[in-house]
Amino acid sequence: MRNLIISAALVAASLFGMTAQAAEAPAAPYVELTNPVPVAVPGKIEVVELFWYGCPHCYAFEPVINPWVEKLPSDVNFVRIPAMFGGPWDAHGQMFLTLEAMGVEHKVHAAVFEAIQKEHKKLTDPEDMAEFLATQGVDKDKFLATFNSFAIKGQINKAKELAKKYEISGVPTMIVNGKYRFDVGSAGGAEQALKLADTLVDKERAANKAAAN
User: Fold this and answer.
1) pTM of the prediction?
2) Beta partners for 32?
């Protein structure tokens, strides 16, 4: 009987130790999606940033992520997707998609962020957007025509559908190769987020090489 009691005590102590270790183990800084999302360019490792022009954290992330994007290797495809949760999110997202379709987003992206974050412009009305963008060299009539086009409506639906599949709840959020989701906060900061992105890109690159052999 005494041996049974001792054995039971040892088992309990062991289980307690395992529980304590599990509690102490740090949570992974990323989530692996249950249902991976196909990438936009097959054969390339995709890194997605979901953002909103009205988000101060996204604005603060800009000077950190932009130099990183410029140095990405040729086997990595970087994609920005506007998060669209209604109201100004949708308006700003539609503006981004319009500028992207016009091929001028890269020229005015920073200016739009500055206007909303620093100059406190709302830029939620298409006419106001067009007026501001005209000061940045964007053709007003072409912008409005593109903004209201059927093609942009399709891009809006696509962006919203991707956000659902990624299961995002805030921004800025990053997705690596349609499999791994994390945000700046969970990663521990802007620099750490990009280091994590690099680590996951390397992981996917190694997996691709292993699959090819």
Assistant:
1) 0.87
2) 180
Domain residues of the chain, as ranges? 47-208
At 25 the pLDDT is 59
Structure tokens at 114: 């500055």
Report the relative pairing of strands 173-176 and 180-183 from DSSP bridges. Answer: antiparallel
Contact (Cβ atoms closer than 8 angstroms) between residue 178 and residue 39: yes
Q: What is the CATH code for 47-208?
A: 3.40.30.10
Mean pLDDT per segment of 10 residues, for the chain of length 213 residues? Answer: 46 46 68 97 97 98 98 98 98 98 98 98 98 98 98 98 97 98 96 98 96 86
**What's the rounded Cα separation, in Å, for the pair 17 and 23?**
10
Query: In this structure, which amino acid lies at residue 39?
Result: V
* Three-class SS of the chain: CHHHHHHHHHHHHHHHHHHHHHHHCCCCCCEECCCCCCCCCCCCEEEEEEECCCCHHHHHHHHHHHHHHHCCCCCEEEEEEECCCCCHHHHHHHHHHHHHHHCCHHHHHHHHHHHHHCCCCCCCCHHHHHHHHHCCCCCHHHHHHHHCCHHHHHHHHHHHHHHHHHCCCCCCEEEECCCEEEEHHHHCCHHHHHHHHHHHHHHHHHHHHHHHC
Q: How far apart are CA 185 and CA 84, in angstroms?
A: 20
Residues 6 or more apart whose Cβ sits within 8 Å of residue 30? 176, 180, 181, 182, 186, 187, 196, 200
And the tokens for 151? 């093609």
As a whole number of angstroms, the distance between CA 43 and CA 7 comes to 56
